[in-house]
Amino acid sequence: MGGYLVRTGDRIALIDAGYGPYHHRSISAGGRLLTSLAAVGVRPSDVTDVMLTHLHPDHIGWIARNGEAVFPRARYRCHAADWAYFMSGTSGNPLAAPLVHPSGKGTGATWLDLLSGVENHLEPWASDERLLAGVEVLHTPGHTPGSSTIVLAGGQRTLLVGDAVHCPAQLTEPGLCSTADVDPVLAAASREALRVILADGATLVGGPHFPDMSIGRLGRPGGCWNPVFTDPAAAAAAAELALPERIAP
Ligand SMILES: [Zn+2]
Q1: CA of residue 67 to ligand 1 center, whole Å
Q2: Ligand 1 centre and the CA of 211: distance in Å?
Q3: What global pTM score does this model have?
Q4: Ligand 1 centroid – CA 16 distance (Å)
Q5: Distances (CA, A) of 81 to 54, 96, 103, 125
Q6: What is the pLDDT along the chain (249 residues), one digit of tens a residue?
């Protein structure tokens, strides 16, 4: 899993920020996002926009370090409903967990401290809107209250669905829920709405948890999932996307 890099006009936008350089019970090799960005010629200070599909730990890991924004010149964007939900001390909040180094040693901070580190850079969205030239946002709640799909509308229309869809099978069976869906009924309704959009058979769709971050489309008729780009480099070249962080399963 990882994030997406989108260049549009003079803007360089990062969509989701990976797990960060921390320990996780099921992710064995993370923490490469900054190195991967450097490999495509992007320094942290070059990033103008950080768009977060939602605020679960595996999407916010690189937003801040030691209380400071990792991308110092960027506007940090997410749905206002997610910010309110996760910052309000909801019981069972996964962001209240401690941040732990890969060695197992604690950092003395929690995931919530990452959000606090970017609070002064935050420009939340509260409705479907145009974020940048060729980049729009569509509210697809249920996985979390503010879960959103980023729509690349400037060329080949592409939906980057965050965790509204964890697995391509959920596009053809929208009722299949992830155990992490906060509101399973609402999440299923959002996936059905995405399925209807994708039924044109032309719109591309990708997500950070799709196998190898593949990007594909639903075929016609019947709507089977067809990966179009399984090689991130090919996807990047074709869709002007860079896939900067790929975390081994
Ligand atoms: Zn996730």
Answers
A1: 23
A2: 13
A3: 0.91
A4: 9
A5: 10, 18, 34, 9
A6: 778 999 888 999 999 999 898 877 666 556 889 998 998 899 999 999 999 999 999 999 999 999 999 999 999 999 999 999 999 876 789 899 999 988 888 899 999 999 999 999 999 999 999 999 999 999 999 999 999 999 998 778 999 999 999 999 999 999 999 888 999 999 999 999 999 999 998 899 999 999 888 889 998 766 788 888 766 555 555 444 444 344 333
Compute, in angstroms, the gap from residue 163 CA to the centroid of ligand 1.
Answer: 5
Q: Is the separation of the CB atoms in 67 and 37 below 8 Å?
A: no
Q: Compute the distance from residue 221 Cα to the ligand 1 centre, in Å.
A: 30
* Contact call for residues 78 and 146 (beta carbons, < 8 A): yes
Closest CA to 52 of 163, 173, 130, 156: 163
Q: Which of 162, 172, 168, 215 is nearest to 195 (CA)?
A: 172
| Å from CA of 214 to ligand 1 middle | 15
CA of 33 to the centre of ligand 1 (A): 15
The dihedral built from the CA positions of residue 39, 41, 44 and 48, taken in this order, carries a sign that is negative
Separation of 208 CA from ligand 1 center, angstroms? 7
Using the 8-state DSSP alphabet, how is residue 89 labeled?
T
Residue that the structure tokens 């869809």 belong to:
165
- C-alpha of residue 17 to centroid of ligand 1, in Å: 10
